[in-house]
Write a structure and sequence with these properties.
Elements (H helix, E strand, L loop, with lengths): L1 H44 L3 H8 L2 H28 L2 H29 L3 H4 L4 H15 L2 H15 L5 H24 L3 H26 L14 H33 L3 H38 L2 H37 L3 H15 L2 H16 L4 H25 L4 H20 L5 H7 L5
Helix pairs in contact: 1-8, 1-11, 1-12, 2-6, 3-4, 3-7, 3-10, 3-11, 4-6, 4-7, 6-9, 7-8, 7-9, 8-9, 10-15, 11-12, 11-13, 11-14, 12-13, 12-14, 13-16, 14-16, 15-16
């Protein structure tokens, strides 16, 4: 009996350390990338309001475009992790060859469409006539290396599925540091302005894509002969089956954020500035949850491939406990650092004060946000993202947007009530995503154990 307990404890510790070692590189990568993006934004900001507007006016479109390779990344991670778990090396290579083809096709199509529409997008986004040409040029330049951007995202996820999170971290961090260095040279030294920022981004995207491709090909598990790189319809269809609901989730979320922000704009410049800056400042506190989501998806996929339901349930329990614990800590830090953090982003005393009040409110909901994120990771690892799509769409539009509309346009309430609506949305998503897993029957249905 004692030997069995020791064995169980050993398995639990092994899963715990796997979650930690897989998530830490991703968390560090995203934290440093976010900080470098802050620096990148500040460097462009020094060029003036028109420069900032030229870069930011197409941001929403960039998010939408990036959501396509992001969705394929989830499919790649899920299928490769499952194949790794089952020990089917032939299947791993088949999936890897298909993932590379899809990454190339995705990048070429998105890049071609983006460049073709670059002159129209700023107009459609309502950009001022004075910045339309500059915004168009910026968007065109960053769209040129789209195939490299696609490969960086999708192939990076494939490498992580083999339980190697360090390689993508190193590649992406190097690309981000290069971007900041090139920004300084091209924006200021060569006086290329916004075009310099775009060229710096394009070069760093290209380098990241090339390095990720090299790492992908070097990985023994993922390496396949070029003669075997051909269209595999069953696997391609499986990739599309998983990625379409993930894409739907990203699109529903992205448009939701746009509408949500538009409902706040009428409250005045100070309030809107406080809101926007607080949302940006809060971003870095989400990162532990997203880092653990990637690790959870990988281990869930591997457990599914092994057909080991007990391991799957342990992964779920430990990942949820670890994520909630980290997000509680994150919430405590956010609560006490709210005002100093706001002061870093704005010189306005009033905006900093209002924004810090909102951040202290949302700090209490960080554990729910963590639960929401890790539950999404479990569904993604299982290759069953449809339910997450339904939850995201219903909660974003039925809770956050609808309640915010009522509070702002009908009851004429303030920013505090708007953030209550945002918190309600996060809590609702967490509860809805976690609810199915409370049923043992549901878990068995998802996960028939191998005999």
């Amino acid at each position: 009996m004692k030997e069995l307990q020791n064995k169980k404890e050993g398995i639990r510790q092994s899963i715990f350390w796997s979650l930690v070692t897989l998530s830490i590189p991703t968390i560090l990568e995203q934290m440093l990338s976010t900080l470098l993006q802050y620096v990148d934004t500040a460097m462009v900001g020094r060029l003036g309001e028109n420069a900032t507007a030229s870069v930011s006016v197409t941001t929403t479109v960039t998010w939408l475009i990036s959501s396509v390779p992001a969705a394929l990344s989830i499919a790649a991670l899920s299928l490769i992790a499952q194949a790794v778990g089952s020990g089917d090396k032939e299947k791993i290579k088949r999936v890897a060859s298909q993932v590379l083809l899809l990454a190339a096709i995705c990048g070429l199509v998105l890049g071609g469409v983006s460049m073709a529409l670059s002159s129209y997008i700023p107009v459609w986004m309502g950009a001022d006539v004075s910045i339309q040409k500059q915004a168009s040029t910026y968007f065109f330049i960053i769209s040129v290396p789209m195939v490299f951007r696609s490969c960086s995202s999708i192939l990076g996820a494939s490498i992580r599925a083999t339980k190697d999170a360090k390689t993508p971290m190193v590649i992406n961090l190097c690309a981000n540091f290069l971007n900041v260095g090139l920004n300084y040279v091209l924006i200021y030294t060569l006086a290329l302005g916004v075009n310099g920022a775009a060229i710096a981004s394009a070069i760093s995207y290209g380098l990241a894509g090339i390095c990720m491709f090299a790492a992908f090909r070097k990985k023994e598990l993922l390496h396949f002969a070029w003669k075997d790189c051909r269209w595999d319809r069953p696997i391609a269809e499986e990739c599309v089956r998983i990625s379409i609901p993930v894409l739907g989730t990203n699109v529903a979320s992205c448009f939701g954020y746009v509408v949500f922000a538009s409902l706040v704009t009428g409250m005045g410049n100070t309030i809107f500035a406080a809101h926007s800056i607080a949302v940006t400042a809060e971003t870095i506190f989400y990162i532990p949850g997203y880092g653990l989501r990637m690790a959870t998806s990988t281990l869930v996929g591997i457990s599914l491939g092994e057909g080991n339901r007990k391991k799957f349930e342990q992964v779920c329990r430990l990942s949820v406990a670890l994520t909630i614990g980290m997000m509680i800590l994150s919430g405590v830090v956010l609560y006490f650092a709210a005002y100093p953090l706001m002061c870093l982003f704005t010189p306005s005393e009033q905006a900093a004060r209002i924004g810090s009040e909102m951040l202290r409110l949302v700090a209490f909901s960080e554990p729910f946000f963590g639960l929401m994120v890790v539950m999404e990771g479990i569904f993604y690892g299982l290759g069953r993202p449809k339910y997450a799509f339904y939850v995201e769409t219903i909660s974003m539009w039925g809770v956050r947007i609808l309640l915010t509309y009522v509070c702002v346009r009908i009851w004429h309430l303030g920013l505090r009530e708007v953030w209550y609506c945002m918190i309600a949305d996060n809590v609702c998503k967490a509860v809805l995503l976690a609810a199915p897993f409370l049923s043992g029957g549901y878990r068995k249905k998802l996960f028939p154990e191998k005999k």
